[in-house]
Amino acid sequence: MTSTVILGDEPLTIDQVEAVARSVPPGSDYLGEPIHVEVSEAAWGRVRHTRSVVEGLADDTVAHYGISTGFGALATMHIPVDKRHQLQRSLIRSHAAGAGPEVEREVVRALMLLRIQTLATGRTGIREETLRAYVAMLNAGITPVVHEYGSLGCSGDLAPLAHCALALMGEGTVRDAAGDLRSAGEALAASGIEPVDLAEKEGLALINGTDGMLGMLCMAIADLRALVTVADIAAAMSVEGLLGTDDVFAADLQALRPQPGQAFSAANMRKVLAVSEIRDSHRDPDACTRVQDAYSLRCAPQVAGAVRDTIDHAARVAGWELASAVDNPVVTLDDRVESNGNFHGAPVAYVLDFLAIAAADLASMSERRTDRFLDKARNHGLHAFLADDPGVDSGLMIAQYTQAAMVSEMKRLAAPASVDSIPSSAMQEDHVSMGWGAARKLRRSVDALTHVLTIELLAAARGIQLRAPLRPSPVSAAVIAALDEVTRTAPGPDRILADDIAEAVYAVADGSLLAAAEAAAGPLN
């Protein structure tokens, strides 16, 4: 069964962007269902109308940027009428100048989807046949090859979008629905799509947007919303396994500092820790002499809650950007064709950087809890490094090294890209956002966070099991069972940890571990 997303009547949501970007290609061997994209009839009417506005200017002797002039620093160059189709082709060919590794399929699909959404607003002057071809290319699972470098996050994600427009012209290289590299012309022909001969203004309309960085922002928000809940689960299990207290997570204490995310995270932790024999074993103040837990345990809701609030802020910015029509020049609601600066990626770049900071701090606290589990001086009676036979076995010692290396990398990735600017186009574009770079490093940070949290979960699962015969909470038991479906969490002789970590990472990334926790706890925030 194929789902359908209609563009043009309402802005896309973050969840829709993520779903379409990560949907399977039609007719491929991937698991899952493809998502079909369509443009509403009302949107087609707007597209036809604003195209007529642009065509009315095509033969005008007055200069109109992108229609009868060059681009960037060449905007003062008047282009004769007989060279204006060549102007658009040259724009795409020259701007398809990306270099470096190929970026992920889901990033390119998000970029294409968001450019289609802007074109469907009827503010760009695109022709109907050009937009129909673009929609068909996306629906056919044809993914242009886009490279890591080429966007400065200003004047649009120029090189990435140009490589997509190049494919629409039947030029360049793409991956077909099966993931095989092919020439764009062959792939279009195989899907019955005619290559487009670009007309006035269309080259600009296809490349002048923040679509790549916005698409990556949407996917990062979706990922981080799940991971911050996983972080709450991991933190609660660490509190349980390290004989910490859940008293500090009480709702009335959290209400004394009404940060919304903090309350949500504390509520999650209370659910995970409910009905735990391990927790009940040290409730007697005469038997337990510890007055307070370490910050990495006691302050977990404060840090994860701040991450939640940062994600919510980023989601608001993404929502505003998803409701935007980013192009230059743009056709206004009263049919003027006006230059503008809405392509500047600063709003998106800032929150991409902000999320990288938040993710790094969440990972840093997670790693500290893992380290506490492994240190015999601080783990309250557990084996050194959670090893089966310390000395003979090293347990999870080096798993923490892996965590530490990733956290250190995440701290480097948290250095903001948006504070940098290298002028381009002969100083016409003298301030740029570097938002594409911010998005690329955030993707690496999200992947590292997934690994860091997974390693904490493995440590907590093993630590909790070393507390036997005391039984953990039902939620912790469900999480341990979910992990045991893909790996082994119980103490035992050393084995290859890389395999265990990799399998557990899949369980975190695909949502199965979170689903197991919610099956026991009920819905989590």
How does the SSE layout of this entry go?
Blueprint (H helix, E strand, L loop, with lengths): L2 E5 L6 H8 L13 E5 L1 H17 L26 H12 L3 E4 L2 H15 L8 H12 L3 E2 L2 E3 L8 H11 L4 E3 L5 E3 H7 L11 H6 L3 H31 L9 H5 L4 H14 L3 H4 L14 H4 L1 H23 L7 E2 L5 E2 L7 H29 L22 H17 L21 H31 L8 H11 L12 H13 L2 H10 L4
Parallel strand pairs: 1-2
Antiparallel strand pairs: 3-5, 4-6, 6-7, 8-9
Helix pairs in contact: 1-4, 1-9, 3-6, 4-5, 4-9, 9-11, 9-14, 9-15, 9-17, 11-14, 14-15, 15-16, 15-17, 16-17, 17-19, 18-20
CATH level 1 class label of the largest domain: Mainly Alpha
Number of helical runs? 20
Strand order of the largest sheet: 4-6-7
Q: Whole-Å distance between the termini?
A: 30 Å
Gyration radius (Cα, Å) is 26 Å
Question: For the report, how would you describe the main beta sheet?
Answer: 3 strands, antiparallel
Helical amount: 40-55%
CATH architecture of the largest domain: Up-down Bundle
Order of helices and strands: EHEHHEHHEEHEEHHHHHHHHEEHHHHHH
**What's the CATH topology label of the largest domain?**
Fumarase C, Chain A, domain 2
Mean pLDDT: 93
**CATH superfamily grouping of the largest domain:** Fumarase/aspartase (Central domain)
Domain module tally: 2
- Give me the secondary-structure category: mainly alpha
Strand content: 5-15%
Q: What is the overall shape?
A: elongated
Unreliable spans are none
